[in-house]
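Service request form, structural biology core

Requester: graduate student, group of Dr. S.
Request type: structure prediction, single chain
Budget code: on file
Notes: please return the result as structure tokens.

Sequence provided:
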Amino acid sequence: MRKVVVSLVLAAIGLIASPSLLVNGAGANSFSTTSAASTQTSQVPRLEVTLLANAGEADSGFDIATSQEFQLIESFLSGLPEVPPPNWNSLGWRGYQLLNNGVPNLPEQIRVFEGVIRTMAADQTHYFVDQHGFEGWLAVRAAQQGFTSGLDELTSVSQSALALDRVDEKAAVPVVAKDLPTSGSEPPYEPDKWNKPGVQDKNNCYNYARNKILDKFGRPGRGTTSEPPAPGDPGYNCANFVAAAKADGMSAVDCDKACPEGSYKVALVLDPDGSGGKLSPDYHWYRQDKGGKWSHKPGAGDVTDKDSSGKPITDPRTADRKRKTKDGWVAGYKDFCGCFCVKAS
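Core staff response, request fulfilled:
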């Protein structure tokens, strides 16, 4: 198997190194919202690749738009053994996500991370062992665009074999904790509503916290004079994000008290320095759901009601908010900025 993996990865490197085959994509996060099913013939078929790392700010990404690469990806997906769903981390580096815009013979959405491939198509989700080096190829392909996250995976192709007998190292441990007070107006926890192609890819934690499905990532204070600075700029802190949230109509509340009827509670956290420069600075929101537990949607990734330790979230102040890098876990969203009330929609 290793010979096949190495051969495919080397072949992929040769393919993307050719200047004539480099994708002239639209760049990071400038993707169209047209789905694979509704793509018009005038639009060039492509795969929108997102490097999942952030929860609030937009992730980096690029397009794949050549027939040669589409055929190569088909080969990466062929003849793979199926495996149970992995226990992927929810915060930090989370692999590569590919959204299909009009490419035939490929699933609506593909995610590749830690030696496992997830495919989503026609309401069917499957997980497979990455036996042919798809993750390593994506790492090299990303490097061609100037992104280096996950490059170690190219030389660690044997990790995919571990997925066959993967051990869940972060199994959820039952937690006995008192839920925070609720107003009775909390939205229900409905991950299937959000975890589907075309919705999952275009909505981040802020959209999810406000329970609004939109066609692009939301950001506190966008379009107002209160919008916070960009990541890495001076003033990327709780004070400015709180001001932006209030400009959007949120009101601060004691986390230990219920919001007024007709509204529900959300919580804001911040990683102001990208965990010491190991990741990009980022913000993140949690949402209290019907029943009292909390959930969140990290960036273009999955909605989940678990924290970074795989435990149910009863209080975002005490939840594990670490972020993962390719080298291990880092401090993550260490700054807790407060709880807020949001009008129920």
